[in-house]
């Protein structure tokens, strides 16, 4: 679990790379970087621990170049930090003796490798160091072999952005768990002429195609995130674009090579950013802090256009930002529900809102107590009561609990009315359908078990099925049998059932066998219906559901 509080401490500007975006290599080349005394570093680390920080990142320059580097790691380990991140360019960690000596300390380490391009040419053009790419690969090999946690960081500049589609093939064999790409901040680049900055900072619109290709190349679920890129540049990747992060204090090197007082990293980092007035119309305005002033001076702001709720809904296939684009739907839903003649109020519950969905409370008018929590967005856990609409899920919880039976759905919500949860659910579904939302998967209890649960999850993930509308689901009280009703485009009905039967043999433990079947209602079995049935049965196949 990520520690709640974390601190970064910069161990000087000494660096053996000459990256085009960074002040440290420039100061080292100018002879203006030197080792820091040990005691001030140890005091800052101790003070950070006293303030409650439990994650420590050691930055540079290149932190491993400090003569007292191992003493710093030992001190942080002795204090009890839960994680110590070494943010390194991979030069020293490409040497087995160095890695062995570092791991021998017994610190709770992880490694953040500064990989400045997914190809040798891109990386070395950015770092200004021949053979630095090979050293990075050697570091990845050694650390992976040692079972260490590895993440990667790249600053996006002209010399490396076109290489990013190659990242997946490069890093996944080394067990890398995350790749972070960050837009270059001109204020962090040192003393640069306007000509140098123009050669270094790419136009953001040029990044869209390589970023899309990169994301496609990675395996599903791999953690890629992009920092400080306006999401309107590539809306389909908006869910992995961030302009802030976890609360982080930074202790940096000031102009006199002394450690500064701690400062809020993300608050300071956006002080030189600007936005155009029309950004206020963007549905993701609160997630974006704009672009750096230097960038705006070079390229202007015309390429940045507000994202509408409709556009984000179209692009957000992951549903990770459903809480944003569903706001208009929720407002209309609340308005339409208020006109329904039921003894319940529907109110937005701000405590239940997040980026992946919008929570709504169903409140009894008689007692003013919450009876249901309804969530529109990414339901995630199929074991709850839910319906899946064409582009989002609709889930229900009883007073915060996600575990309940079919019988509970039919019970009155409170003693003051005979209205049941199932009736409230039906009203909400009807209202959503009246607003133009198309139901793909009907509500189903979360009490399914074994292969019945696995088949339901498989069907839910694959729906909708061509030529069929999923009308209803019924689950046996023991969770071992489900019956689903579908309706074909021509009006025929199709009932599909599957179950787990217990088999008892004398002298052996009981086992379970998956069974199932289907029934066609009245009407002709047309080619379209037969094709849909074939897809449905193939999806439910037991052999393909085993975990």
Summary keywords:
547 residues, alpha/beta, ten-stranded mixed sheet, six-stranded antiparallel sheet, 18 helices, 24 strands, 24% strand, elongated, disordered C terminus
Secondary structure: elements and pairs:
Layout: E1 6-10, H1 23-29, H2 38-50, E2 55-59, H3 69-79, E3 83-88, H4 96-103, E4 109-114, H5 120-127, H6 132-145, E5 150-156, H7 167-171, E6 178-183, H8 194-200, H9 208-217, E7 223-227, E8 241-242, E9 248-251, E10 263-264, H10 265-269, E11 273-274, E12 291-292, H11 293-299, H12 309-315, H13 322-325, H14 327-338, E13 344-348, E14 357-364, E15 370-377, E16 385-389, E17 393-397, H15 406-410, E18 412-414, E19 417-420, H16 421-434, E20 439-444, H17 450-462, E21 468-475, E22 481-488, E23 493-503, E24 511-520, H18 527-540
Helix pairs in contact: 2-3, 14-16
How would you sum up this structure, described in words?
This protein has 547 residues and is α/β, with parallel strands linked by helices. 30% of the residues lie in helices and 24% in strands. The protein is built from 18 helices and 24 strands. The strands form five sheets. A ten-stranded mixed sheet has the order 8-7-6-5-4-3-2-1-9-10. Strand 2, helix 3 and strand 3 form a beta-alpha-beta unit. Helix 2 (38-50) runs parallel beside helix 3 (69-79) and helix 14 (327-338) packs across helix 16. The longest helix is centred in the first third of the chain and has 14 residues, at 132-145. The radius of gyration is 28 Å and the shape is elongated. Residues 542-547 have low confidence and may be disordered.
């Amino acid at each position: 679990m990520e520690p709640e509080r974390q601190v970064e401490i910069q161990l000087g500007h000494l660096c053996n790379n000459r990256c085009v975006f960074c002040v440290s290599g420039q100061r080292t080349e100018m002879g203006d970087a030197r080792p820091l005394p040990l005691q001030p570093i140890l005091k800052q680390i101790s003070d950070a621990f006293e303030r409650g920080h439990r994650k420590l990142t050691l930055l540079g320059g290149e932190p491993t170049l400090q003569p007292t580097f191992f003493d710093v790691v030992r001190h942080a380990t002795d204090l009890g930090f839960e994680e110590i991140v070494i943010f390194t360019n991979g030069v020293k960690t490409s040497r087995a003796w160095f890695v062995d000596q570092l791991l021998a300390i017994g610190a709770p380490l992880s490694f953040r490798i500064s990989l400045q391009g997914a190809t040798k040419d891109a990386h070395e053009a950015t770092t200004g160091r021949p053979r630095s790419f090979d050293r990075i690969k050697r570091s990845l090999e050694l650390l992976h072999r040692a079972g260490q946690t590895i993440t990667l960081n790249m600053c996006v500049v002209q010399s490396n952005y076109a290489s990013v589609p190659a990242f997946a093939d490069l890093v996944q064999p080394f067990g890398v768990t995350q790749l972070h790409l960050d837009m270059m901040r001109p204020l962090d680049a040192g003393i640069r002429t306007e000509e140098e900055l123009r050669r270094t900072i790419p136009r953001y619109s040029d990044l869209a195609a390589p970023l899309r290709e990169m994301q496609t190349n990675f395996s599903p679920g791999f953690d890629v995130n992009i920092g400080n890129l306006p999401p309107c540049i590539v809306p389909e990747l908006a869910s992995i674009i961030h302009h802030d992060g976890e609360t982080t204090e930074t202790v940096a090197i000031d102009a006199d090579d002394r450690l500064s007082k701690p400062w809020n990293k993300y608050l300071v980092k956006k002080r030189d950013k600007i936005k155009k007035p029309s950004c206020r119309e963007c549905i993701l305005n609160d997630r974006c802090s704009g672009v750096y002033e230097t960038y705006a001076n070079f390229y202007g702001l015309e390429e940045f256009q507000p994202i509408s709720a409709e556009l984000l809904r179209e692009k957000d296939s992951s549903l990770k930002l459903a809480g944003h684009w569903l706001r208009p739907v929720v407002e209309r839903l609340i308005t339409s529900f208020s006109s329904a003649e039921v003894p319940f109020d529907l109110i937005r519950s701000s405590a239940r809102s997040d980026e992946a969905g919008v929570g709504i409370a169903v409140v009894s008018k008689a007692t003013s107590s919450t009876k249901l929590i309804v969530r529109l967005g990414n339901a995630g856990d199929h074991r709850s009561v839910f319906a899946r609409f064409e582009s989002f899920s609709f889930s229900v919880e009883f007073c915060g609990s996600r575990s309940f039976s079919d019988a509970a759905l039919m019970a009155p919500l409170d003693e003051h009315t005979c209205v049941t949860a199932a009736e409230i659910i039906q009203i909400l579904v009807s209202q959503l359908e009246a607003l133009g939302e198309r139901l793909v998967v009907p509500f189903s209890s979360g009490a399914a078990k074994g292969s019945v649960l696995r088949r339901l999850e498989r069907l839910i993930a694959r729906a909708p099925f061509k030529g069929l509308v999923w009308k209803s689901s019924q689950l046996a009280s023991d969770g071992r049998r489900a019956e689903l009703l579908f309706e074909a485009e021509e009006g025929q009905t199709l009932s599909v059932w599957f179950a787990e039967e217990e088999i008892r043999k004398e002298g052996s433990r009981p086992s379970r066998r998956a069974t199932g079947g289907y029934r066609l209602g009245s009407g002709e079995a047309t080619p379209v219906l037969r094709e849909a049935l074939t897809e449905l049965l193939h999806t439910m196949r037991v052999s393909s559901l085993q975990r």
